[in-house]
Amino acid sequence: MSGLETRRPKRVRRAPSHLLRNDGGKRVAKTVIHNTRSYLKQHDLQGQHKGKPRTLKRIPTVSVHSLQGGSGRMAGINSNDDGGPHLTVSELEQVQQCCVKSSAALQQYVEQGEQFRSTIQVLQEALHANISQFAALKLEAHRSSGELEAVKKENERVTADLNQMKAGNTSRINGIMKTVGGFFVRSRNN
Q1: Closest CA relative to residue 29, chosen from 39, 21, 40
Q2: In the structure, what pLDDT confidence band is assigned to residue 123 with cuts at 50, 70 and 90?
Q3: How far apart, in Å, are the Cα atoms of 149 and each of 95, 135, 139, 158?
Q4: Of the chain's two ends, which shows fewer C-beta atoms within 10 Å, N or C?
Q5: Left (φ > 0), alpha (ψ -120 to 50) or beta: where does 12 sit?
Q6: Contact 8, 39 (CB under 8 A)
Q7: Among candidates 86, 96, 4, 98, which has minimal Cα distance to 43?
Q8: What is the mean pLDDT of residues 166-176?
Q9: H/E element holding 115?
Q10: For residues 114 and 71, which has the higher predicted lDDT (pLDDT)?
């Protein structure tokens, strides 16, 4: 076993009730359960404790003060030794006004945040509508592109047919011209 050990005694003594009352400024001792000296000596003599001899650890007493108010100081704050804030009523009013101003500024920021949020929502909806419209136009352009390709192919086919017809017509015209030309040549010769 090492270090300080505390064990609960079989009986717990209660502090007298007059020590626990807070009459303002009286010192009140906290009730501490710890080993008795005789118990520690008995275990030290038996050799169960190695190293330094055990000592009792006592908790210091605490000074309890009554609440002081009415002098412009905050009630419940001891102005003598607590090292805490010591504010007068006017200082408290200044702190309160500062808190009110901070609260109003915070409310404005919240309202501006809500306005920004609604503006962002409107912009997101407009962006979504534009994206949908762009997708529809892209689909229409793709469909038009397909139609344009079909028209282009049809135009090429018609042009090829016309070229074939032109070539056929040219050869027919040449044949007709030869026939008619041969006819005229014979009639002159005769």
Answers
A1: 21
A2: very high
A3: 78, 21, 15, 14
A4: C
A5: beta
A6: no
A7: 4
A8: 84
A9: helix 89-189
A10: 114
Q: Are 82 and 33 in contact (CB under 8 A)?
A: no
The Cα 54–Cα 5 span in angstroms is: 9
DSSP reduced 3-state for 99: helix
Return the pLDDT at 166. Answer: 86
CA angle 123, 124, 129 (to 5 degrees): 95
SS3 28: strand
Residue 68, exposed/middle/buried by CB under 10 A (0-12, 13-18, 19+)?
Answer: middle
For strand 27-28 and strand 62-63, is the pairing parallel, antiparallel, or unpaired? antiparallel
Instruction: Give the whole-angstrom CA distance, residue 162 versus residue 175.
Output: 19
Q: Encoding tokens for residue 96?
A: 């309160």
Mean pLDDT of the chain: 73
| Sequence letter at residue 166 | K
- Give which of 80, 81, 34, 39 is closest to 59, Cα–Cα: 34
Question: Are the CB atoms for 61 and 28 separated by under 8 Å?
Answer: yes
